[in-house]
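Researcher: First entry.
Model:
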Amino acid sequence: MKNLRYIINNRKTKFYEILKEIALEENRSFKDIIKEYNQLLKESKFSNKNLNKIIKKFGYTKISRKFSLYGYKLNYKFSHYYNLEIFKKIPPQEVAIVTGFGPTNPPTAGTLASIFRAIELQKNTGVYTHITISEFGALNSRQRPLEELIQNSYKFISFIKELGFNQKNGEIRTHNDHDHARIFSLVASVLTTKDLLKNLEVTYNTYKRLNLLGNDFSRMVSRAYVISDILLPIIRDKKRGVIVPLGLEEHHHPYLARIVLERLKLKYKNLIRQDADVGALYNRIIPGLFPYFKMSKSIPQSSINLGDNVEELQKKIINCKKIDEEIILKMMSLVSDWDENKLKKAERAFNNLKKDYRSWVKFKFDYLNFFIKIKNIWENTKYPKNFNLHKEIFKK
């Protein structure tokens, strides 16, 4: 990627053509697009630099090909882990997997990857799995109408069940939950403002600039909600440990949960089991479409998502910008039901696309059809289109 001065002075660069195309698509001036690109470039470099610093500072371990969790090889779908060695000594029935999704918009490819990983972990490890659809968390962290968040929550829950989540060995809930409210009160009793301000999300600056965040206090409430999600199985169900699969850019959630857990152990010795612990498993990040750092549900132009119509999906996948071709390959690897043999063939076609672009396009059409199939599952999920907001919030 090049900087602003380079783009202005060298109009033959491929980035000039890409940004010119974006300006036409969005009906904005080229100068505005260049300024935004330059800002996003700075934020992206900052985010990538921060991730590398985070890995070194917190000692996150890169996953080797041989590393497994309860017999399930974690391989290329995860990048790093933290504090998982102790779980080799803990039987799976004493452990819970905890993850969650904000129902701000239809799932992006990145969100789909996380959903697929959670279902795979549940299936292959046999560990009881909690998935939280955080409508109240999203209400506080993002500026979205509550009615829309509740409606999307119903869709997310139905969608995840359709993808194969095993309800006999797990539970999907929202933040409108009495047990969660009880845990939240315990968490808030030991969590400090300093804890939260010292540990911000990697993409915080981009979201703040685009005015997508809630106010300062509401964001803190949202983050305390996530910590409560993580610790609920330990406190309510007396589990020995919790494993949190999530993106590395959100590493602060399990990190803060461990800090809170240690404080709760000291304050409530008869309530919290003293040998409890939290581990984290970091998904590989699917980068955002040029020029964004990651795919975000809150920034539609950054992502390929289930809310896109078929025409938009074809444009983003089949007729994508050259700079985004590798992102399509990563999506095939992390968000598909393709076996290892087909993925290797797709990778060979990608590596040879300059000489034989048709072969690569064939794989892209296969992937488009797969993504449309998942999109149809999302669109056919059952949810209440009309509901009484008061009754919905205070239902028993």
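Researcher: Second entry.
Model:
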Amino acid sequence: MFVRRLSSLHLHQSPLSRRSIASVAWNDQGITLERKDTRTTRLLPHTWLRDHCLCPRCIHPGTRQKLHGSGDIPGEIQPSSVNLTDQGLKVRWAKNSTTEKEHVSTYPREWLKDQLDPSEAPKKAFRPTPWKATDLDPSSLQIPYKDFMHSDSALRIALSLLTERGVCFLDGIPGEERAIEGIAERIGPIRDTFYGKTWDVRADPKAANIAYTSLDLGLHMDLMYFEAPPGVQILHCLEQDVYGGESLFADSHYAVGLLKKDDPEAYQALVEMPVPFGYRNDGHDLSFTRPTLVEDGPAGLEVFYSPPFQHVLPLPSSPVASRQLDAFYRGMRRFKGYIEDPNAHIRIPLVPGQCALFDNRRALHGRTAFSSQAPGKPDRTGHRWLKGTYVDRDALWDRLAVLLADHAANDRGKGL
């Protein structure tokens, strides 16, 4: 096949070439770039390149939205010339039966670098870092409320902790019921559910949800019976003068890593076997079925674990299904053992003025049983009252991406 190669003059003059590209070649299928550092090549198909043109005729300058669809790109699109310039890769597209005039596309070197190696591109979320409690310095997860509310730097640190560790804590919060709304809206819009925009967690003799009792509440995640469970959960402590009622937090990613290493068959059963979750109470009937582990979720590994709301598992219909069910139960026992290990989970008595923020698709939360008998005060009844709300992870990722971009721009401006 005939291959055109760019002259060495272009290769020596371009900053893109000096930093990233050793050679450029093109043929009927696409343009091939060879990386200078790894000597690996990557084919950029002509249709893909034309579809991703960044010029004002293709991307609206004000909205930054595409002005064409992938279905508008001619299958026979071909360049008439390809040049490596100081600005990047410049492609002049030839006229054809569906193109009335030539079109010129320029792909900046930084944009090309991101496409050639997506692992180096800016990410909206950090790579999660698994943890167990004994590996953490509790103070590293604490952010002062005033800083969180008034400093973008503190907000960036808090949201980075949420994406890296799955949990962080605020302290110094005013004892006002609506304070949680300001905390949530600092990240993004509140996720409204049938529980309301915000909700109260306190013992209720007529509770329709086990969370609203004084019973032990094992480690779990919320609203697994929703098609899209909330991403971020926030719990603000308003009252805590009971005996017990300590809050628990564990990293499901840490437990999954152990399970995958210790029992690959059980791990695979949790990836493959569908688990039904449901809520049928108080005038609602919600259900959704999904595996316990989803390996390729929007943020990578996602875990769906909520024993109180797990419904009837399907009966095995074959010997293979029976073996999978055995492996599933073995995996659930192991997983439960990992997260309930005292060295694995954080056990913290949230006190008034404190708040926990955590990733509801990763961090498990729970609480120990409590008695309304106030400690040291036998003649008085104590109370435990948390205010809760949700925010979707889209809002978290959106806010963090902007904060990170602004921080990087400030660093560049300072020459860092």
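Model: Note on the second entry: The radius of gyration is 27 Å.
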